[in-house]
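Fold Annotation — chain and its backbone
Next Lines — sequence and tokenised fold

***
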Amino acid sequence: LAAYFNETKHLGVDLTVVNTRNWERMVIAPTNWIFRPTSPAIPNWETAMVYPGMGLLEGIEVNEGRGTPYPFRIFGAPWMNPVKVLDALRSKSLAGVRFEHQSYVPEWGLFAGEVIYGMRIIVTDHHLFKPVATGIALLKSIYEVHSYNVPERLYKTVVNPSGKGHLEKLLGCRLDEC
């Protein structure tokens, strides 16, 4: 992050990043832990695992599972072609995860009461799964299938009052540059 901000904010800091010795990425599934929801939209461990990547869907007009019992674990839109998106995803060779077709009707949120054509995400190996890389691959697949004609979602926040450009703010870059 220091290198990113130094470059993007043109800080000009003489920066040296020192790698940690003997560090290895390790994910331990909390089989006997008590999970405390970090948000109303993150009710369980499975959701917490996928959220860093699936939360990127908030930047486009895709229901990210809000309004269902499975937020961030199912997603789609009335206009989405999940068969073609799934084919595009398979070409990306994502490890530790698979996707299955899933249609649903959210009770509230984006597209409430409408039939959503989409998919569900299933983590098959927590050690291999990379949530952000998976989320970016998913976004690219949706854009490829729908000819880059994917509606932007205006997502108003304190730091982004207009809601415009939310996906780029989440990614820190344009999707074609990530």
Summary: The chain has five helices and three strands. The two ends are 15 Å apart (CA to CA).
